[in-house]
Amino acid sequence: VYKRQMEPCHAPARLRTSFAAALLVIALAPANGGAGTEGPDFDESRVQWNAAELRASKFFLSLEVDMTLREISASAAAAQLEDSDDWRGLPPPDPVLDMSYVSDGLGRKSEVQMLFDPVHGGMLQRTTYDTGNRYRLRRYRYGSEQVLRQTRRPADGESSLPPEAWSREGGELHDLPADRPDGPVTEPAALIYLAAASGLNTPGEGFELSAWADDRLRTVSVQVLEPESIRHDYRVADAERITTEKGEVRAVRVAIRGRPLDGEETGDDDFELLGLTNLELFLDPETRAPLMLTGRLPRFGQVAFRLQRLTLGPLNQTAGHAAR
């Protein structure tokens, strides 16, 4: 028998998914998906891929990220959203983008799922399941004025159990700043999709969004830099065949930078995407696939994630082959 240990919290620690109530909220919600939908619009039809694997290597370091994109219905999303007994987050629009990825490296494996609005970028929920050198399940559920953080950890002897059996759990409700800019709140990793779906191509073009990271809100700017030719070598699959793409392409080069809401110049070292700071994303101009993501990794310096495998196809279905 394990003693339940509770973290300090402002919301009830025992959380539940109420499918029927979520469906009722959907029925009452505005057609645009509820609060926080002002800002740039994103077009999913620009994104011609639904799965990608990237890999980075430096010295003895090896990091891999395997991501998938798929469109799901509002009812399917509602069944996965976790609210507390007396607090409810934003209702899902129809459809919802389910962006999932697995990152593996530096002794830790993280499985991440993000549910968000594919048109405006507003985040509904992010869930991260860590194993390896840290065992933790953390979920952020987004509301119009607050973010609910829910955490589970194993007590001694529980790490081999599924997360729902872990006995240490807690929740904390964070208020979003009242003076934040109008528009949706997103998460850093969602910017890979949002940059692709934005259609940005010309140097100087860009957009800004608010992003929640490390329990605080930042303003994130995404801006096109001068294009750069990069070499690529990856496997690509569509509904009919698997081929190899190898050569050189003049990529759309995008800088991603974060800053505190108060505008204080504290540098970019604390704004991370996949563990990297000072980020640049290189997109294929036709498929909008992430050919390369570069940035600085603490203790290792400059690191580049390069595309290894790509699956082409629309977001509302899975391609017929996996690029293996």
Outline of the structure:
The chain has about 325 residues and is mostly beta strands. It has helices at about 20-30, 75-80, 190-200, and strands at about 50-60, 60-70, 95-105, 110-115, 125-130, 135-140, 145-155, 170-175, 185, 205-215, 215-225, 230-235, 240-260, 275-285, 290-295, 300-310.
Q: Which terms summarize this structure?
A:
324 residues; mainly beta; 5-stranded mixed barrel; 46% strand
What would you note in describing this structure?
- The protein has 324 residues and is mainly beta.
- 7% of the residues lie in helices and 46% in strands.
- It is built from three helices and 16 strands.
- The chain has a five-stranded mixed barrel.
- A hairpin with a 3-residue loop joins β15 and β16.
- The N terminus is likely disordered.
Order of helices and strands: HEEHEEEEEEEHEEEEEEE
Average pLDDT reading = 85
Major sheet summary line: 5 strands, mixed, barrel
Give, in spatial order, the strands making up the sheet with the most strands: 12-13-14-15-16
Helix content: under 10%
Spatial separation of the terminal alpha carbons: 45 Å
Radius of gyration: 20 Å
Oligomer state of the chains in this structure: single chain
Residue fraction in strands: over 45%
